[in-house]
Please model this.
Amino acid sequence: MDNGASSYRRFLEGDTNAIIDIIADYREGLVLFINSFVNDFCTAEELAEDTFVKICSDKPKFSGKCTFKTWLFTIGKNAALNSIKKKARHSEVSIDDFYNIADKENIERNYIKDEEKRQLLKALERLNDDYRQVLYLVYFENFSNTETTKIMNKSERQIRNLLYRAKESLRNILEKEGFRYEGI
Model:
């Protein structure tokens, strides 16, 4: 059983400090993943918080059919998709759009330590959503293809095809910038 699952079980059994462990382990990755949907870092942070609040207040059942991280990221993805639907219905301009938010770079610096990964992340932002999400899940969060199929709600074959096309597209972007990364 992975650490997140055991922490969640401890939380359900009454150990309120266990949720702190879950947040510490998964917050940054969840925020960056959600940001790939909403393209607004403040909103991504809020949705990640909402995800943690949901598991604290609703205490949904974790069946163990996938890893805890896969389960948590799926809840986060659903929160992001619901937010996008609401935003489409209530088209309004957020005041946050007018401010330069430095938090995104701070969390990226903490989460992505070396220069190559920062350049990759910038190149990833230029990819379409599916490409960016599949690369992020597989290579930054180390999800297996099977776990990625559950999060993205696609077949194993679709994930393999997306990965192939996403890597090719990323490689083309990076080569145009004169950057070579051996991992892609």
